[in-house]
Design brief:
Blueprint (H helix, E strand, L loop, with lengths): L7 E8 L4 E7 L4 H5 L9 H16 L5 E9 L10 E12 L2 E10 L2 E10 L1
Antiparallel strand pairs: 1-2, 2-4, 3-6, 4-5, 5-6
């Protein structure tokens, strides 16, 4: 399932020498939030990881599947009612032999929701 424009919208893309930042708006009316959880919407961890994969696809310009996820840490609850805009910051993006490795931090300023290190092909 593609979450872009259902669970989130890309608001801004910024690239520097050190990182690529995607600022996204969470769509609180998404059917996922109606089920997880009614009256207290929380972004499921699997949706955060899927969003990171979709954004990495945008960054490299091709379809990707996650082949390995390392060091996935959910540090705080991500709710569209508390924070409707968050940033996915990609660092250490490297392509070799058809694989893409990346680290991503999901945050709002200094408040971190999740960190992920993963490999895609």
């Amino acid at each position: 399932m593609i979450l872009k424009n259902q669970l989130y919208r890309i608001e801004q893309l910024q690239t520097t020498d050190e990182a690529t930042n995607f600022t996204v708006s969470l769509i609180g009316s998404c059917f996922i939030y109606k089920a997880h959880f009614p009256g207290n919407p929380i972004t499921p961890g699997v949706c955060i990881v899927q969003t990171a994969r979709e954004l990495l696809q945008e960054l490299v310009g091709r379809g990707l599947e996650i082949t390995e996820a390392r060091d996935v840490k959910f540090l705080n609850i991500l709710s569209p009612t508390d924070r409707s805009r968050v940033t996915f910051t990609f660092t250490d993006v490297a392509e070799a032999d058809g694989h893409v490795k990346a680290k991503v931090s999901v945050h709002d300023d200094d408040f971190v929701f999740c960190t992920i290190a993963f490999t895609c092909a």
